[in-house]
Amino acid sequence: MKDSRPTEDSAAIRRRRICPDCGGRFTTFERVQLRELTVLKRSGRRVPFDRDKLARSVEVALRKRPVDPERIERLVSGLVRRLESMGESEITSETIGELVMESLKQLDDVAYVRFASVYRNFREAKDFEAVLGELEPRPGEGGDGEDPAAPARRRPNLADD
């Protein structure tokens, strides 16, 4: 038995299969690959682009963040599509890193800072200050008459009940 359908963002075909011998269920994802990509590393080495490595990097930055796995998959698929549609078969690791940071900045500030700290090789606290300065305040986070130096109000914790 087989069930096939496009994923939510139509970037892949999701297939569910059942093994006729053992009854185990398997899910696979098939993606269209527009072109073979090569990554030009800072060291000058060239390596094949690895979608899974990109996905792992994004997932590490988003670990324990309240972001739905579907959104993470859409972000990674969108990044891969952008890279494939650039028209180049060779892409620098810097280009990939900047695109990831741009996407994470839109999705989750904490993940953005985490990724930036590794990507830009932070050495001291002032490096974090520079990146935090790049973030725009969200509604209700400063810029609206609140004193940013005032202690944060404690949010109720449901575990306290």
Automatic annotation (TrEMBL):
The keyword Zinc applies. Pfam families: ATP-cone (PF03477), Zn_ribbon_NrdR (PF22811). The keyword Nucleotide-binding applies. InterPro entries: ATP-cone_dom, NrdR-like_N, RNR_NrdR-like. Belongs to the NrdR family. Negatively regulates transcription of bacterial ribonucleotide reductase nrd genes and operons by binding to NrdR-boxes. This is Transcriptional repressor NrdR.
